[in-house]
Amino acid sequence: DIQLTQSPSSLSASVGDRVTIACRASQTISTSLSWYQHKPGEAPRLLIYSASSLKDGVPSRFSGSASGTDFTLTISNLQPDDSATYYCQQSFTTPSHTFGQGTKLEIK
Amino acid sequence: EVQLVQSGGEVKKPGEPLKISCKTSGYRFTDYWIAWVRQMPGKGLEWMGIIYPDDSDVRYNPSFQGQVTISADKSMSTAYLQWSRLRASDTAMYYCARPHVVGIPAPYDYWGQGTLVTVSS
User: Fold this and answer.
1) For residue A51, what is the nearest residue in chain B, using CA coordinates?
2) Labelling A105: which of A41, A73, B66, B96 has CA 20 to 30 A away?
3) Mutant choice from B109, B113, B116 vs A, greatest count of A C-beta within 10 A
């Protein structure tokens, strides 16, 4: 099974800051990696797919990158509404489209 | 407009059966996979399994194989997640989700609102 390890598990940043969240895959997954934003009481929201493609309607402050089995979600110019838990997900192998364990982002 | 509308919250006792639903509209149901995702209280997202409604091809996360059954009714454009005997550890929020591209199993850009299942004696 492919494992995804996210870091950090939580972080706190201020409005206007730039933050990065990392996701490391236990084996190659090509660019079959997506990022979601999940707020309490809401359904998860797809932000990035294919490692670096921004979903329509998602602010360009969000970006994704990949280097081998290491993936990064970057959020620039943090806004209060960015407070959420962020998950990576791999879709390289079926039957298990694993999620990372999540990174909780708090806006100070 | 694409919509996934899940059935309402459930409170059940251990050992009881349960079937929750995900009714879809706004697209051709048989063209897209439907996935189920669990979130236990205070925990992260877990991918449970996925079904292709056109031929009912089902793939399970090995962790959930044998514990739940995923099915779909093409005539109702509805996917289902069911348990034959619930356990307290099944207490969680369950989401259905649809991929953003025809014919591929992930990632998901349409989600149901979630169904909260509470299992308690």
Assistant:
1) B107
2) B96
3) B109
Question: Helix, strand or coil for residue A71?
Answer: strand
d(Cα A103, Cα A101) in Å, to the nearest integer?
Answer: 7
Q: Is B36 on the interface with A (CB under 8 A)?
A: no
CA end-to-end distance (rounded Å), chain B: 40
Per-residue pLDDT tens over the stretch B24-55: 999 999 999 999 999 999 999 999 999 999 99
Contact predicate B45/A103, CB 8 Å: no
**Who wins on pLDDT, B105 or B1?**
B1
Candidate from B45, B50, B111 with C-beta closest to A99: B45
Chain centroid to Cα A8, Å, comes to 11
Residue B108 token pair? 């998901």
* Digitized pLDDT (tens) for each residue of chain A, 108 residues in all: 899 999 999 999 999 999 999 999 999 999 999 999 999 999 999 999 999 999 999 999 999 999 999 999 999 999 999 999 999 999 998 768 999 999 999 999
SS3 assignment for B47-105: EEEEEECCCCEEEECCCCECCEEEEEEHHHCEEEEEECCCCHHHCEEEEEEEECCCCCC
Query: Is B105 close to A36, i.e. CB distance below 8 A?
Result: no
